[in-house]
Structures are given as C-alpha cells and as structure tokens.
Design goal:
Elements lengths: L1 H15 L35 H47 L1 E5 L7 H8 L5 E9 L4 E10 L2 H11 L3 E2 L2 E2 L1 E3 L7 H11 L5 E5 L7 H8 L5 E9 L2 E13 L2 H11 L3 E2 L2 E2 L1 E4 L17 H15 L35 E2 L12 E2 L68 E6 L11 H9 L5 E11 L4 E10 L2 H11 L3 E2 L2 E2 L1 E5 L1 H5 L6
Antiparallel strand pairs: 1-3, 1-6, 2-3, 4-5, 7-9, 7-12, 8-9, 10-11, 13-14, 15-17, 15-20, 16-17, 18-19
Helix pairs in contact: 2-4, 2-8
Organism: Clonorchis sinensis (Chinese liver fluke)
Main location: nucleus
Pfam families: RRM_1
C-alpha cells in the first residue's frame, strides 16, 4: 500500500509539472498479425482473394502446363510405337533369315527343278539360288533355298541333312549369318505363346480342315485347325496349315507320332510352330488418327495432372501481378506438330506418320537441351564428283537420340534451364548404310567437318524406312556458328563417302533442340 501511494503521488507530481503526458488509450483498428512466438490462431487460414490479372495469369499457366503435359504424353506414345515398330522390323528380318536354308554337297548333274521337287513337301519355296561356275557351266555344288515359312526350313534341316540325293549325302543347315537360331526360335515361341501350336505340311489337296482335325484330335483337344488357303482358288488349300492344342503335351505327342505319317498317300511333315501364321503384325494397323491421338493424350494428361479448383474471375480488380523472375521465351516454344503419331514401321512413307494438329499456346516455355559426348577424330573421305547431284532423302518420323540405334559412343542427355547457344546444325544424308556404321564413323565425320568450323558434337542416328523395311542413317553435326554450317554444306554436298553421294543440308536448330531428328 505504501508503494502504491508513493507511485500515485509521483505520477500526479510529474503530471502537474508537465513532465509526463497521459494520452487516452486508442482501440485497435485493422488486421492483427501474430509475431514470432505467438500462439497459432484457432481459426483456419483464409486465402486472399486474387485480382483479375492474377486469375488470368493462373489460367494461362494452367493452359501452358496442360499443353506441356500433352506434349510429354504424345512423345511417350510416339516413342513406344517407334520401339514396337523397330522390334517388329527386326523380328521380320530374323524370320526372313529363319526361312533360308543352305544345301551343300549337291551332285553336279542335279538341277534346280530337282531341288524344288525334293524340298517342296516341307512347305512352299520362294527361291532356289544355285551358284554357277561360268568356266564349266555347272553349279558349284551348293545352293540356298528360301521358304515362305520358317517351319518348312526347320523341317528341311531336320529331315534332309545327310540324306542321300543324286548319289551324294546332302549337307543341310542354317546360313552362316544366323548362328543363334535356337535362341531366336525360343524367343519367338515364348513371345507369341506358340508352345501349343504345330505346323503340318504334306496334306493331300482333297483333305479338309475337318478331316485333319478328326485325325489330330486323338492327341488332345484342338483349339483350332487352319489350313492356308490358296490365293488363286479360295476353295483349295496349299497343302499345309497350323493346329493348336489346349496344352503343350498334346502338341509334343502329335509331333512325335504324326511326323512322316502316311495320310492319303502323302507323308505328313509335322513340327512345332515357330512364328504366328498371320505373321508379325505391324503397328500401322493400330495407329490412331491425329485427332484421336491428341484427344487421348489430352485425357491422359488430365488424369496425370493434379486436380485444381476452377476459380471465378473478378472483373473489378486492377491490382497488377508481379513479373516472374524468368521470362518465358516465346520463340523457343514448339507446337505439337513437332511430334508425330506413328502409323507404320515406323512410318508409312518416310513421312508416314500424320502430323498432329498444333494446340494453340499463349504462354510458352523453354525446352531442355540435350548433350552428347564429344566424338573421336580419325578417317578420310572420298573425293567429290561435282557432275552428279546426290539424292534428296525424304524425312521420317522423329526418333529421339536416347532411343535411336546409335553407332559409337552412347549419348547422354542433361536438362538445363538455360537456352541453347546460337549454333548451326548440319545433317548428312545418304552418307552410309547401317552395315557401314562402326565406332570410327563418328571420329571420321568430326575430323572432316573440323576443317569448316568448330564441331561441338556429332550424332549418328538410324531410323527405319518402311518402304524397304531397312534402316537409313543420318549424321548430325553441331557447329558453333551458322557460317560453319554454310561452309560445310558448300564443301560436302555432292561428295562421296564409302561409295555414296552425300546430301549435306542445314537442319532446323529448334527441331534439333527438341530431339526431333525426323526432318
């Protein structure tokens, strides 16, 4: 009490002397912010209402993000289809090798007709190639036979090797360029699930599918029996076909019991199936139309993206939105047309995929840049012949370098947020074939192109040509300047390398930075 009295007296005295001014207490007005160490409010955090420009910017960002997501989905779809089509091309080439048979130790008086007659019971023959000696006007004692189906070739090897023909024992086997036939056959059987399917040839023309099914159903329940129809007469079959059982044991029993069985006066030839009777299908039959592809990619992108709430637009606000720290580069934005939906292995005519219609964009961003390990220099070039002009090869579907069939060092790619430096891209077409690609090609190109400017990197890119079912090779050279590309085009266009006349051209830098090597 004494202290309180003294404090009151002191305060009154100071007020009387004008030393202390007492002001009225002002009530709080406006928002109150919690400082550090304050207790958290119990009410939930409430977002600020966005202004018109902010909402418009968010809508543009959503649209841009959706476009980029669609581009990514389309690219993944294209890469998956390209990979499938490349695999189909390789499988078709492998099956073509399985159709070929080497026949050696042939008597010199044996003609092609005799070979055809002896090997035709195994299946239809495409060609019989005998090597002739121009000096003696006789064959050299060996031949190559190509069947239409690999099962016929397998039967010919199994049953004609060491067989007596024309007074000599034949030597029948696979060509030397197919050394792992058993592994390839096992992979085909496993991939197409052919364990329960058998191949039957030597069927009499008067027998029907019902007749064959009646004979072979003794080994197990048959799923289907299909005889290959003669294209010249749909009412007749070609004397061979396929039978599929419900289990592999029935198929094995049928092969063991019915091979070389006399049915209707002809010996049946039976073996396990190697390839599907309809052949290895191409992805072209399942390719989507352009509009359907874009729609599918859009739906996929929406499902993969985060769900966002559609906010109403405030038309009364006028508060500007702050500028972003990194401005988008409109000139580096690509339309969806840079990517194509593939519809044949991998395109139907060098431009065989159809272009995807572009999606409009009002907010565009930069694209990542790809980097490849620098090549090694060595090698030399043929002299040019200015009297001839090199053929201009058409473009094909895009194949990003990380999925391409590259020769030499494996490419590695890193994503960077900086735009690519100004440089020039040179493309060399018709320079080499797939069989000429080796580890030294990259260095040879670098050594030659370094005469016209500083070479930053070289990419050897292969892509399939559906018209010939072969691979074509493009060589991309990145210089540090456009002038270097012009010098290289003037010097290399029309020159010869490995017996081929080169077509040297400028390549679109923007497409190159997008990994689009199809132009």
């Amino acid at each position: 009490p004494d202290q309180f009295i003294m404090s009151s007296v002191t305060t009154a005295a100071m007020s009387a002397l004008g030393i202390l001014n007492i002001n009225p207490i002002i009530e709080p007005n406006g928002p109150i912010f919690n400082g550090p160490g304050a207790e958290k409010p119990k009410h939930p955090f409430i977002l600020r209402t966005l202004e018109f420009q902010q909402r418009a910017a968010i809508e543009r960002a959503k649209k841009y993000a959706m476009e980029q997501s669609i581009r990514a989905v389309l690219l993944r779809q294209t890469q998956a289809q390209q990979s499938q089509q490349l695999n189909n091309i390789k499988k078709n080439q492998t099956v073509a090798l399985l159709n070929r048979v080497y026949v050696g130790s042939i008597a010199y008086d044996v003609k092609e007709d005799s070979l055809k007659q002896s090997f035709s019971p195994f299946g239809p023959l495409k060609t019989v190639s005998m090597s002739w000696d121009p000096a003696t006007q006789k064959h050299k004692g060996f031949a190559f036979l190509e069947f239409e189906y690999p099962e016929a070739a397998q039967l010919a090897i199994d049953q004609m090797n060491n067989a007596s023909f024309g007074g000599r024992q034949l030597k029948v086997g696979r060509p030397s360029n197919l050394t792992n036939a058993d592994t390839v056959i096992a992979e085909l059987v496993a991939e197409y699930k052919l364990e329960n399917r058998i191949y039957v040839s030597g069927i009499h023309v008067d027998l029907t599918e019902d007749d064959i099914s009646l004979v072979f159903e003794a080994f197990g329940k048959i799923v289907f029996c299909r005889l290959v129809v003669d294209p010249e007469s749909t009412e007749r079959h070609r004397g061979f076909g396929y039978i599929e059982y419900q289990n592999s044991q029935s198929a094995a029993d049928a092969v063991a019991s019915m091979n070389q069985f006399n049915l209707g006066g002809q010996l049946l030839r039976v073996c396990k199936a190697i390839s599907p009777p309809e052949g290895i299908s191409s992805a072209a039959a399942t390719a989507l139309p352009p509009a359907a592809a874009v729609a599918a990619a859009s739906v996929t992108a929406q499902l993969l993206s985060m769900e966002t709430e559609q906010l109403p637009i405030n038309t009364n606000g006028n508060t500007p939105l702050g500028q972003p720290s990194v401005q988008p580069q409109t000139e580096n934005a690509g339309a969806l047309g840079a990517f194509r939906v593939v519809n044949s292995p991998p395109s139907s005519n060098r431009s065989s995929g159809f272009d995807v219609p572009p999606v409009p964009s009002t907010f565009n961003g930069q694209h990542p840049r790809a980097y490849v390990a620098s090549p090694q220099p060595l090698g030399s070039w043929d002299q040019p012949d200015s009297s001839e002009a090199g053929p201009v090869l058409p473009s094909s579907i895009p194949l990003p370098p990380e999925n391409s069939i590259g020769i030499g060092r494996k490419s590695s790619f890193a994503v960077t947020s900086t735009p690519p430096p100004v440089s020039g891209i040179l493309v060399l077409r018709n320079m080499v074939g797939p069989e000429d690609c080796d580890d030294e090609l990259e260095g040879e190109v670098t050594a030659e192109c370094s005469r016209y400017g500083s070479v930053q990197r070289v990419i050897v890119h292969q892509e399939p040509d559906p018209s010939t079912n072969t691979l074509v090779v493009k060589v991309f050279v990145q210089f540090d300047s456009v002038q270097s590309v012009q010098n290289a085009v003037q010097a290399l266009n029309g020159r010869f390398f490995a017996g081929r006349q080169i077509v040297a051209e400028h390549y679109d830098l923007h497409a190159f930075t997008l990994n689009d090597l199809s132009r």
